[in-house]
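This is your field. Pick holes in the following sequence-structure pair:
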Amino acid sequence: MPLISLLTPVLADRAALLVEAGESIAAQHLPDGWEVEWIVQEDGSEPSLREITERFPFARYEANGEPLGVAVTRNLALSRAAGELVHVLDSDDLLLPQGLAVHIEAFAEHPDLHWVAGQGDDLLADGSRRSVTLDLAAGRVERGVLTQYFVDHGGVPIHPAGLTMRTNTVRALGGWAAAPRSEDVALLVAVADLAPGYLTPAATWLARQHPGQTTRRPGWQALFATADLQIAQRIEAQRTAHLRYLQGGS
């Protein structure tokens, strides 16, 4: 049966949020024949979340045993993925019931896609949702469009936390970048410069807004300029190196 692997890096203080993330996976309406595995990778030196993941029969848990950061933790989760597709699900975010199905069906309708980005609504503290206006039309996104957007604007018009990609594509590009920030943007623009993708017309996930968000920590913004420089350098190198795979390995 076809399988989609959900990758969730998590810290020990996210226990309650992790339960809700798991419940949103359990509520998915997948296309006929599809199955899901939830690969939870706990970062930090004092892991404590194994028992929570055991509530969910589709979960596969491992702990780093030491603090390694989000990019390495995602890549360790990737190394355990058995699905032909991988989907990013942060520990404090939630999937909407048709979320994964919309992504899977986009890949089925457009066989040449290598990534699908789900639009995400903000989930506010009072339980209400707030739509986010994107500077990109929904539907098919040709190769190079997101990369050029980054070159022109210094960012991307979608949130990489709602991304589904072909597993082999992510592995071929080395997974998430070893960057101090924006490791997910670095991977997205690398994939999007090589292959077409798709932006869903409606929200498929919810981005929880809460005081404990990593991006709200003091000093979090300080290293974004360095990360953006790394991404820009990668774009330039990828465009000028003219590397390609040859048929038959020759």
Remarks:
- The mean pLDDT is 93.
